[in-house]
Write a structure and sequence with these properties.
Elements (H helix, E strand, L loop, with lengths): L4 H13 L4 E5 L5 E4 L2 E4 L7 H11 L16 E7 L3 E10 L2 E9 L14 H6 L4 E7 L5 H15 L3 E6 L12 E6 L7 H8 L6 E4 L5 H12 L3 E6 L4 H10 L6 H11 E11 L5 E9 L2 H8 L7 H7 L11 H10 L5 H7 L3 H10 L1
Parallel strand pairs: 7-11, 7-12, 8-9, 8-10, 10-11
Antiparallel strand pairs: 1-2, 1-6, 2-3, 4-5, 5-6, 12-13
Helix pairs in contact: 5-6, 8-9
Length: 362
């Protein structure tokens, strides 16, 4: 019997009921759900090769060129909407001649910043009218959700033209105060850089790039920020210092002094995210928030050491002119508010000794 969209909807429904973030489907195995960071098998039948081919057809039905039924020999990304349920982002890949599929569950409705328990400073950052704003973190740390919430915050508060360049499109925005043009790589534009260059001719106020992948994209994004636009993007980096270092290292050595200067002038904020195990099986997001100040500009430009940035951020916590916070400061907050256990906090902070000392002092 063929595997149908109804069967897929049932599997996704089970995942949603168990608050899973992802579904792993592999040939001749039972599916697994990613729940609170762990893979948990679903008590159902083993999916055979025919089932996997049927699922590939369902997922790729709306792809340019029509549905794919062959055994894919390369990774294939995309997203589809399951009516009255959710959107799912998929990656289809092959391993030892067999098919593997990972589905990421995306809520149909975009959560707002308050619902995500995000600091109020993120709303202020989102409404910045020029400069580059980056959301960073490991895969699965919630970057896309945070970025989408910030874009929708603009949508609710400003009459702007927002252009997104995504691979694939995940959240679908409603037109509110802004006009939003969502463009998908491979469908609406050839690649991120082509879409970004075209966006500069489409009278944008806000440009959102799904991911900053290479020097060419980074350079065009910098140019957009320099010409008075606000540019959002994501990077797979662990903190502010590594993010800035990654951007600089995209360029050859002889260009790096100039790139440092450009970044110092145009990088407005970096929001870094980590997932922590919260109490009662919940997942908690810890954030590092850097809002560029004069001292941070000196570090980026090379006048001071990049590694001083966390110290500068920590000194600005709670100040209306900054509003930044380090990971350690936010982890302390999450522990004191009872969202995470002491063991989780100690494992996550950069210095256990400093963390324990602050507990004693306070």
């Amino acid at each position: 019997m063929a595997f149908t969209l109804k069967n897929l909807s049932s599997l996704v429904t089970v995942a949603i009921q168990h608050k899973a973030s992802d579904i792993h489907i592999r040939t001749n195995e039972t599916p697994c759900l990613r729940i609170s960071g762990d893979l948990v098998p679903v008590q159902t039948k083993t999916f055979n090769s025919t089932d996997l081919h049927d699922i590939v057809k369902i997922l790729t039905a709306d792809q340019p060129g029509g549905p794919r039924a062959d055994l894919v020999k390369e990774e294939l990304d995309g997203a589809i909407t399951i009516p009255d349920l959710c959107r799912i982002r998929y990656n289809i890949f092959s391993y030892f001649g067999q098919i593997g599929i990972v589905l990421r569950i995306i809520n149909t409705r975009i959560p707002n910043l308050a619902e995500l328990d995000m600091p109020k400073t993120l709303g202020k950052i989102a409404l910045q009218k020029r400069g580059m704003i980056l959301v960073t973190g490991a895969t699965g740390s919630g970057k896309s959700t945070t970025l989408s919430a910030m874009i929708d915050h603009i949508n609710e508060n400003r009459a702007s033209h927002i252009i997104t360049i995504e691979d694939p499109i995940e959240y679908m925005y409603e037109q509110k105060k802004s006009r939003i043009s969502q463009r998908e790589v491979g469908r609406d534009t050839e690649d991120f850089n082509s879409g970004l260059r075209a966006a500069l001719r489409q009278d944008p106020d806000v440009i959102s790039i799904g991911e900053m992948r290479d020097q060419v994209t980074a350079n065009t994004a910098l140019k957009a920020a320099e010409t008075g636009h606000v540019v959002f993007s994501t990077l797979h980096t662990t903190n502010t210092v590594t993010t800035i270092g990654r951007l600089i290292s995209m360029y050859p050595a002889h260009e790096q002094p100039e790139v440092r200067k450009r970044l110092a002038e145009n990088l407005h904020a970096i929001i870094g995210q980590r997932m922590l195990a919260g109490k009662n099986g919940k997942v908690v997001i810890a954030q590092e928030i850097m809002v560029t100040s004069a001292g941070i500009r000196d570090c980026i430009s090379g006048k001071d050491d990049l590694n001083r940035i966390p110290s500068i951020i920590s000194q600005g916590q709670g100040k209306s002119t900054n509003g930044g916070q380090t990971f350690d400061q936010h982890i302390m907050f999450l522990y004191q508010k009872g969202f995470i256990d002491k063991e989780v906090a100690l494992d996550a902070v950069s210095s256990q000794a400093d963390f324990i000392q602050k507990l004693i002092v306070e």
